[in-house]
């Protein structure tokens, strides 16, 4: 297993995440709708809005998973936030970064992962909108385009919620 690298702008990224004041907050109906939409469109059992903090990934919205968070050092999303494009793992058992990851070998048995970085307007990638399946699968450019559009809607909503907190 390979631990996720740290983004070059990690300090700014973490400050941006904390400034949004979204960590450890109550569910948001609009974000939940976007997560449910992604799960439905891509026909996956798990879809998440994952915010990547310094040592954990916390799930702001989730479909098909009971966990509230996981450690960052085993997260797929920790890898995804270091990419500019959608990060895809077609078959985690055949990927040297993940084949022995406890999220792959354990009870969850992740095989497929696609995560679109949630890019804040300042360029920081604060987390992902991600899709998970228990079977390997393919993910094409058209799929990536759709996921990217929905991820942009997620960021827009997170920024709007942060502004509302500032003015309340």
From TrEMBL:
Q: What is this protein called?
A: GAF domain-containing protein
What species was this sequence derived from? Pseudoalteromonas viridis
SMART domains, per the entry: GAF
- Pfam families per UniProt: GAF
Q: Where are the transmembrane segments?
A: none
Task: Name the InterPro entries on file.
Answer: GAF, GAF-like_dom_sf
Enumerate the spans annotated as GAF domain: 26-166
